[in-house]
Request: fold
Amino acid sequence: MKYSAVKYCDIANGEGVRTSLFVSGCRRHCPFCFNPDTWSFDYGEEFSQQIQDEIVESLRPRYIRGLSLLGGEPMEPENQAGLVDFVERVKREYPEKPIWCYTGMTYEELLGRCRTEATDRLLSCIDILVDGPFVQDLKDITLRFRGSSNQRIIDVPATRAAGQVVLWQGDPDFAKHSM
Ligand code: SF4
Reply:
């Protein structure tokens, strides 16, 4: 698997100060995609042991709230396979630090036609899933942590326990996920 960027001390892609990993490869090709350079699976650098170790180390300070996964498309089959061992390692080493994942697929698609051998392992580690494609007609710059109103911020552990989608509530001051 390749990745296009790692942002340290990122405050835009999830709650708090985070390390964000942008993986390469996305077949969806949404109009007005925010990151079309990353559509190619060959774009960027190899996701080597060295960068994995660097990311894990970056999560150590108390002020770093957690890891965010973006793309490209982290849930493309190749990227699920490329991420799963690493995500399990992060969960093992920092069980208290929430993992966010941004995907253009819906949660229902991940359980259906987009499911791979790695999907259940990934979903058991991911705390928050921001799902669905970016839709330009539904763009709303007042939304917190997402670009268009069709996208949902899903509490994955609660969703798996309930057997139906449970939206993340987060800070009560931001319960509507808008500002
Ligand atoms: S799913 Fe994300 S990375 Fe892929 S085309 Fe859509 S906005 Fe771009």
User: Anything to note?
Assistant: The pocket of iron/sulfur cluster is lined by residues 26, 28-30, 33-35, 71-73, 104, 133-134 (CB under 6 Å).
